[in-house]
Design a protein that fits this description.
The chain is an all-alpha fold. The chain has two domains: about 80 residues, no CATH class; about 70 residues, no CATH class. It has six helices and no strands. The longest helix has about 40 residues. The radius of gyration is 23 Å and the shape is elongated. The C terminus is likely disordered.
Length: about 160
């Protein structure tokens, strides 16, 4: 009895480990793609079509969630590298930007109601991040140009 409970909790424990949570979600969705139709087939009423629909739905949701999670991690890594490079080039400007970022992060904590809303929120967040990064780089290049400095080796690229 105890071992069965432990065995049931292992996917939850492994899935809570952040670096592999997307892989666990994808695996669970793939399992649902086949397990739900098979369980419906074994029942006496035999609603196989309903089981296929549920399995495909669960698989789609799990796959989309895993893809969004992986994309979010990749975007976060790219943003962190860009911010590090920017901090190295202009250390005084980075402190002000980071304070604004923490204020915005506390204001934007919403939960999506369904899949479409989640995708729209993910796209909006990604677009906003790209737009803000471009504006920040443009402002820093303009400040450098106005001061006549040569801090930015890539300032010609940003024009």
């Amino acid at each position: 009895m105890l071992f069965q409970d432990i065995r049931k909790q292992i996917p939850n424990v492994i899935g809570s480990y952040t670096p592999i949570s997307a892989l666990v979600q994808l695996t669970q969705g793939f399992r649902d793609l086949f397990a739900i139709p098979l369980s419906e087939l074994r029942k006496e009423d035999g609603q196989l079509i309903r089981g296929i629909q549920q399995g495909a739905s669960n698989f789609g949701i799990s796959t989309a969630t895993a893809a969004i999670d992986a994309t979010q991690r990749l975007a976060s890594i790219v943003q962190s590298v860009a911010e590090l490079a920017f901090d190295i080039v202009t250390p005084d400007y980075a402190l002000q930007q980071r304070q604004r970022q923490y204020t915005r992060a506390s204001q934007n904590s919403r939960v999506a109601g369904d899949f479409r809303e989640g995708m729209a929120m993910a796209y909006d967040t990604f677009s906003e991040g790209v737009r803000e990064t471009a504006q920040t780089l443009q402002a820093a290049a303009q400040e450098d140009r106005a001061s006549g400095g040569t801090q930015w080796g890539l300032k010609g690229l940003l024009r």
